Amino acid sequence: MALMTRELKASFAFVERNFNLTKRYWGWEVAFLVYAVAGALAVSLIGAGQGDDRLLLTLVIGAVFWNYLSVVFSFIAETVSWERWEGTLEYTFMAPVRRYAQMLGSTVYAVAFGFVHTVVVLIVLALFFELDLTRANFATAAVFMVLGSVSFIGIGIMTAILPLMYVERGAQMTFVLQSVLLLISGVYYSVDILPGWMQVLSNFSPATYVLHGVRAGLIDGAGITSLLGDVWPLLLMGIVFIPLGLWAFGRAERYAKRTGKLKRVG
Amino acid sequence: MTTLLEQPKTEPMRWPAPAPSRTNRVLSDDGVPALLVEHVTKQFVVGSRRKRKTVMAVNDVTIRIRRGEIYGVLGANGSGKSTLIRLVSTLLTLDTGRVEVFGHDIERDEMAVKRVINRVSVDAAFFKKLSPFENLAYAARLYGMEPRAARAEAISILARLGIGEKRLGRPLEQMSRGMQQKVAIARALLTSPTLLLLDEPTTGLDPRSKLDVQTFIEELRDTHDATIVLTTHDLAEADRLCDRIGIINDGRIVVEDTPEALKAKVAEEHGLEPTMESVFMTYTGRSLDDDLGDNEDKDDED
Questions:
Q1: What mean pLDDT comes out for the span B27-32?
Q2: Which helix (H) or strand (E) holds A61?
Q3: B130 touches chain A (CB under 8 A)
Q4: Does pLDDT of B294 surpass 90?
Q5: In chain B, positions 21-50, which contact chain A (CB-CB < 8 Å)?
Q6: Under an 8 A CB cutoff, do A17 and B171 touch?
Q7: DSSP string of A138-168?
Q8: Any CB–CB contact under 8 A between B119 and chain A?
Q9: Nearest residue of chain A to residue B43 (CA atoms)
C-alpha cells in the first residue's frame, strides 16, 4: 500500500511537469490548436459544401475524435523522444520511479490535455455549423471515447519504445505509425472504400471501432448494446495492449541500458 | 607519439616529497563500503552495420570506496570514466562483475540503489524552458519529497552557490552554463544522496563558477554524510578535493592511491615533478592537451 501511494505521488511529477511544459511552450500550443481547428474546419466544410448533414456530421466526428485520439497517442508515444530531445532521459530513468508510475502520469496528463484540446475544437465547429444532434446518444459516444482512450494508451506505450531503441529513427517511426493509423481507421470515410489489404489492417486499429461506434451513437442514436461488435475489440485491445506495452517497455529499457542508448545524443 | 611510459629508463631525478595531505580526515575501512565495484566489464558495439567493432569501455574494474570518501576518477576522453559512472547510476547494465551501493546490489535491488544515489553530469540535464523551481519540483516529486520543503532546501543550497531566489522563477535557458550547473548540483543534493556521482561537474565553467562549485564540494565533504565519486579533467581540482584517485586508461584502473602518494610515486619511480600533471601523463601516456584535443573523436565512446 505504501509502495502504491509512493508511486502514485511520483506519477504526479509527470502530470505537473507536463503541465509546466505546456505553460512554457504556450505559443506552440496555441499554434498547434489553431492548426487543429483549421484542419477540422477545412475537412468539415467539404460536408457543408455538399449540403449533406450526414456527411457533415461524419466529417465533424472524424475530425474531433481523431484530434482527441491523436493528441493522446502523441503525448504518450513521444514521452521518450521528448526527454531525449530535452536531454533529461537519463535523469528521469535514474530516478527511483517505476515505469508504470511514469506512464500513468504521462497518460493522465495526455487524456486531460487531449480532452481540453478537443473541447476547444468541438466548440468552434459547433459555432460554425448547425449540427443536427437531435438523435444523438451521447452515452454511447462517451463509452467509446473511454474505451478508445484505453486502447490508444496501450498503443502509445508500445510506440514509445521506438525512440528508446532507435535513437533518431524512433521518433520518425512514431510519426509514420500515427499517419498509418489516420489512413486506415476511416477517420473521414468508411473503411469499406479502402483496398482489401488496408481493410485487413484497419481491423487492428482501435480508432476504426471508436469512430464507427461514435458515429453510430451520435448520428443514428445507437445504444451501446447494439454496438457490441465494436466494443469487444476495443476491450480486448485495452486489456492486451496496456500490460503488453508496459512489459515491452521494460524489455526495451533493458535493451537501451545494455547497448548504451539512454545516453544523450545531439 | 612518444609517451613518458615509452621513454628509456634512466636514473630518475629526485624531487622533494609532496606537501602533506590537505585534509586530516580519518576514513574507516570497517563496515559496508559506500561503493563496491568488483571486476566490472562493459563493452559496446559501435559503428555502422558494415564497420561494426566492439569497444571495451570498462575492463575488469574493481574499486572499493569508503563511506564519506571523495574518490576521483581521472582519465582521458574515451577512457571509460563516464561509462563507469553510468554503470553505477543504473543507466547501463553490467556485462560481468557486480556493483554494490551501501550493500545493495545494483541489479537485484535497483530501486534501493536509486534512492540513495544522485548524479550531476557534464551537461546540465534540464527542461530548459522550465524554471529552476519547476525543474526542482519535478525532481523532488520523483524522489518522494514534498515540493514545498524541497523549494526551501533548494533556495538554501542555491544561495550558498551564489544564486539568489529571484532568479529561480525564470526559464533555465536564460541562465549561464555555470548557473545551470549549480542548479544541477542543487537538484542532486536536494534528494540527500548518500552517494553522489559528479561526472565532470566543472567542465566548461568559468573560473569563478568552478571555484564556487569546488568550494561547495569541500563543504559537502566536511559537513554532510555523503560519499562522492568525482570524474574530472581538472587535475588541480582532483588534487584539491579527492581523498583518493583512480586513474582509468582504456577501461582499466591502472593506478589508485591518495593524490600525495601518486605524486610521490611518479617523483620516486620516474623522476618527475610531483604534480598531478605528471601522474596523469605517466599513467595515461598522454598529456592533458592531447586529451582535450581528442575530445571530439573519443567522447562518443566515453
A1: 71
A2: helix A53-77
A3: yes
A4: no
A5: 44-45
A6: no
A7: HHHHHHHHHHHHHHHHHHHHHHHHHHHHSTT
A8: yes
A9: A259
